[in-house]
Design goal:
Layout lengths: L2 E2 H4 L7 E4 L14 E4 L5 E3 L4 E7 L10 E6 L4 E6 L2 E2 L8 E2 L4 E4 L13 E7 L20 H6 L2 E2 L2
Parallel strand pairs: 1-12
Antiparallel strand pairs: 2-3, 3-11, 4-10, 5-6, 5-9, 6-7, 7-11, 8-10
The structure holds zinc ion (ZN).
Length: 156
């Protein structure tokens, strides 16, 4: 029995996918992750465990991108969370368990509070940064659907 990503990210009802992988319709570029939204202040939980390899503490507004990058060595994948505010206790090098709270949903690197969301991106190997989505015609990441299924999640 798989859990829906939009539930598991928050461990609460009310989350929804607002843009799928490569799902841009009006934005130029290729969407390298999956956007999931529930609302500012929602607890954001790690979907996959691993080691924190990079943290950027952003601020609200378009120029304030935040990043949490968690590398799972046995899977050889990095899961990167953008836009949500990292918990102050997080440190690079720390191990994070599946389901552990890592952030509060916010709008760090998003132009308006009303469009707050968490961008969840699977990357091959150890990668500190998300691939460029907006304005970049090249898709760097493979479709993550089977990866998410293998980790026990429905992409919805
Ligand atoms: Zn996104």
């Amino acid at each position: 029995m798989r859990a829906n990503m939009s539930y598991a990210l928050y461990q609460a009802r009310g989350g929804r996918i607002t843009c799928g992988f490569d799902g841009y319709t009006t934005t130029r570029g290729r969407h390298e992750g999956i956007d999931i939204a529930r609302g500012v202040g929602s607890d954001v939980h790690a979907l996959v465990g691993g080691k924190i390899i990079y943290i950027a503490r952003g601020h609200t507004g378009r120029s304030g991108l935040s990043t949490i990058s968690i590398y799972n060595a046995s899977l050889r994948k990095t899961v990167i969370y953008l836009h949500s505010a990292p918990r102050s206790s997080l440190r690079v090098g720390q191990m994070v368990g599946r389901g552990q709270v890592i952030a509060d949903e916010s709008w760090n690197g998003v132009s308006s509070r009303s469009t707050a969301h968490t961008h969840v991106e699977m990357r091959l190997g150890s990668r500190t940064h998300a691939a460029k989505s907006v304005g970049d015609p090249h898709l760097d990441n493979p479709n993550p659907g089977r990866f998410w299924n293998s980790q026990g999640y429905n992409v919805r």
